[in-house]
Structures are given as structure tokens and as C-alpha cells.
Amino acid sequence: MGHDHPHDHDRQHDHDHQHDHHHGHDHDHDHDHDGSALSEVALRVRALESLLVEKGYVDPAALDALIETYETKVGPRNGARVVARAWSDPAFHAWLMQDATAAIASLGYTGRQGEHMVAVENRPGRHNMVVCTLCSCYPWSVLGLPPVWYKAAPYRSRAVIEPRSVLAEFGVTLPDETEITVWDSTAEIRYLVIPERPSGTEGWSEDRLADLVTRDSMIGTGLALPADAHPEAAA
Amino acid sequence: MTADRLAALPAIPRDADGPVFREPWEAQAFALAVRLHEACLFGWDEWAAALGAEIKAAQAAGDPDTGETYYLHWLAALEKLVAAKGAVTDAELADRKAAWDRAARATPHGEPIVLGRELQAP
After folding, report:
1. What class, spelled out in words, does domain A75-229 have in CATH?
2. Sign, CA torsion A25/B110/B107/A70
3. Would you kindly state where each structural domain of chain A is located, as residue ranges?
4. For a tag on chain B, would you pick the N or C end, based on fewer CB atoms within 10 A?
């Protein structure tokens, strides 16, 4: 991995309605620096899987379906802890926004792939969502296994072109004046969305807050759950 | 997947709801074994025995057996079992692994890794 390769942290796609969406979705300028490298064990699994699929022993769709069953079971879902801490602790929040890699690592959560984390925060008038348009880079050390739809071509292309209709399909409707920013992951930079803290959660413990932080809310295809959705919400 | 079948396996990493995985490849290797069993390539007892033998051999060779290496043993057992069943030979696996490695290295980040990419003209 070319860690000396300059990062452009501001590369993003703005989607307010006055904007022309077609502004050259150019990845090549910063992706052509080197090839991809798969780990030894990932190569072994790919070799085995591709041969078994070719020979007709397994159906790739059936494999995906099974993996999808366990998608919330892969990797620690530490992102919710990160978000809950940011909601509760202003000093941690400031650190997270300034240097997410270090702030997240301070909680003991480090990526195995050495990726650089950037936190992007939702607030009134501003919504963030994350995509990887050409592949499926995903901060699974904090979010677990990428959901199948995240890797699917329709999400990857449509999230950039028509984020509002993609959000609507996820059941999220935002005010017209809310600006939506779509962040495109790379091999080196992974984004974590910090959803807005739900109202009515004043004084809640971090543990309790973390229960409201869904995976989708940290990708930006969902919002944090409302306070009354907590399993221990007073009846 | 029934709980019974999982319980038949040596110490699979799991929580109250079922198996847990540390990395995506672990879930892929898990799914391959389950689907191959469903395709009747091997029986579940046979699989449990193959996995158990792999773990035992690793422990004898000094593996600390803390759960971090569980799916390495799982994958090794799977490779051996598919070879024993004549589904995929060791040579095919080695060739295919080298092909994926070449393909990955020839793939700029951000593009899907596909076999044969390194053979394509730019």
C-alpha cells in the first residue's frame, strides 16, 4: 500500500439541488498508484471459492445469502461505542473530528488494514453518507462485515447520482434544504458517519446510547434510533 | 444451520446467537463448508473430524488455540477435504491462488479484482 501517497481529504461529492451532479467522477487520478494486494489467507479462500463455483459445487448466490445472515456477526461493531462516546464526551468528540484514527484507536479499535479513519458528522441541514463507488472499501474493523447492498453495483452508482432516492428506499426522508454529502472511500481513507444524537437521551449512559446507534446510521443510510426505540424504554 | 450441527464442531467462536467472525474471509470459509456439506460433498461428522484433526495437529505444533487461529485451521481442513474428495486438487488450488495474486497486483485500487486482468492489454 502506498502510504506516502498524498490524500485528498476533501474529495467528496456535494449534492445540494442547485448542483450539477456530473462533475467527472474521476477515480483514476488517485487510484493508479499501485495495485491491490490480497493477504495470503484471502488468496487461499478466493482460490478455493472460485474453483468450487466454476466446478458447480457451490452456488455463489447461496454463499452470499449465508454470509448475509451473519453480516452483523463479522468483526466487532465498535463504531456504536465510538459514536456514543462522541455524543457524551465533548473532548473525545473534538479529538474524533480532528483525528479519528487516533481517537478510535484510543478505545482499542484499530483497523487491520491500516486504513486512515475520518469522522463526518450529521447535523441539522447536513447529512453525510458513505459509498465506495468502484469497489467496497469499508471500515469493517469498526462496522463489521459490509452489508451485501453496500457492495452491490446499484448502491455504489446511485448513491452518488441520486442520494435522496437511495435514502428514501432506506426509509430516510430528509428536509429538502438538508445538504447531502456523499463520501467516497478509498483504500487509505474510510469514513465513519456520526449520526445526530436523538432527542430525549439527555443523561443517558454510553452503553445505553450505543444501543441506538445502528450500523446503517454510521454509513449514513439510516438515522440513529429514537429514544423510545430503546429496548429498555419505559413503557 | 442448526445449533446441533454447530455444537458438533470443536469450540467454534460464537455468541448466544451463533458463530462470530473476526474478518470477512472467515465468514466466506465458514459459508463454503456449510454449502459444500449441503451439496453432499461431505457429511457433517466427516467435516467435524477433519477440522478436529487439523486443530489437534496445530495444538501439537504449539498453536496457542486462543480462537484467533480457528478459521486458519478451518480453511486448512477444507482444502484437504475437498482434495480428498477429488473436487479440487492441490495443484489447481496453487495455480488459482497464484492467478488471484497476479490479478490483485495488476488491479488499481478501486476496481474489482478479476481473474485474467493482468493478461488484458491496457
Report:
1. alpha beta
2. negative
3. 43-71, 75-229
4. C
